[in-house]
Amino acid sequence: MTESTALTGDCASCFGLCCVALPFTASADFAITKEAGKPCRNLDTEFRCGIHTQLRQKGFTGCTVYDCFGAGQQVSQVTFGGTDWRAAPQTAREMFDVFPVVRQLRELLWYLDQALTSAPAARLHPALRELRDETTALTAGAPAELLALDVAAHRRRVNTLLLQAGDLVRATIPGKKRDRRGADLIGAGLAGAELAGATLRGAYLIAADLTGADLRCTDLIGADLRDARLHGADLTGAIFLTQPQLTAAKGDAATRLPTGLTRPAHW
User: Fold this and answer.
1) In whole angstroms, what separates CA 66 from the centre of its chain?
2) Which pLDDT does position 5 carry in this prediction?
3) How many CB atoms lie within 10 A of CB 147?
4) CB within 10 Å: which end of the chain, N or C, has fewer?
């Protein structure tokens, strides 16, 4: 198993944790409201989604764009040794609490791996590799260790390096780059915008029109791209763009994607 495969959700090796541990709120993304720790009504006895092939039609678009980065199989098969919460109900609460912790760590691993594949960030690779190894070790902790972990503090350490890596990638685009970190760009008309080398970290781009926009080498970590229109946009070299972000957006055959990401089936 390659590292990239390990950081992708494997539902067949998971006990349906995202369908139980996480809460849903009735909205455009979810057809129902569900409390954390309560199984979704669509979860079957084999820990599979009973409407998996109809999620979008049934109002569960949020499920189609979610990725645990492999936390589900890690918690199910490693942290809890392959014993599911139905067979051992006394472990359920602890398992459900551990899952989001491991999910955060696995997401950080994905970002660190992305930075390690970046040639412009080569001088940071030794520090990135060291932090990746440390993060990997943390994911292997016992339930009590994971629940005691200060994830926010660890995320800050990782983010410091990721920010530097992103800056090095963006610097490969000549000229002044836009800084739109955390910007409210909901519904913004950005068709054809020159955003190459910009930072859009944590920006709200929900339903924004980015048709034909130049997003080469743009830092998109944490950007909300739900329903953003990326038709014909150029995302070549965009850094820290995840598959869930891409799947939440809208695009077409003319959208140019970064290496390692796939064109969503619904485009």
Assistant:
1) 7
2) 45
3) 12
4) N
Residue-level pLDDT at 47: 96
pLDDT in tens, 200-233: 999 999 999 999 999 999 999 999 999 999 999 9
Where do runs of H (alpha helix) occur along 7-70?
A: 61-64
User: Residue 192's CB: how many other CB atoms inside 10 A?
Assistant: 14
User: What pLDDT shows up at residue 6?
Assistant: 81
Torsion angle defined by CA atoms of residues 120, 122, 123 and 126, in that order, rounded to the nearest 10 degrees: 150
SS3 percent helix, strand, coil of the chain, rounded to 5, is: 40, 5, 55
Q: Which residues partner with 209 through β-bridges?
A: 189, 229
Gap between the Cα atoms of 59 and 111, Å rounded? 30
**CA of residue 31 relative to chain centroid, distance:** 22
Q: Which amino acid is at 16?
A: G
- The answer to whether residues 63 and 55 touch, using CB atoms and an 8 Å cutoff, is yes
DSSP 8-state secondary structure symbol assigned to residue 259: T
Contact at 8 Å (CB) between 147 and 101? yes
Q: What number of other Cβ atoms are within 10 A of residue 61's Cβ?
A: 21
What are the tokens at 86? 């139905």
Residue linked to tokens 């999620």: 55
Using an 8 Å Cβ cutoff, are 182 and 201 in contact? yes
In the predicted model, what is the mean pLDDT of the chain?
Answer: 95
Crossing angle between the packed helical segments 92-116 and 125-139, to the nearest 10 degrees: 170
Kindly state the greatest CA–CA separation across the chain. Answer: 59
d(CA 61, CA 249): 11
Looking at this protein, which amino acid is placed at residue 244?
Answer: P
| 8 Å CB contact between 133 and 153 | no
Tokens in use for 103? 């999910």
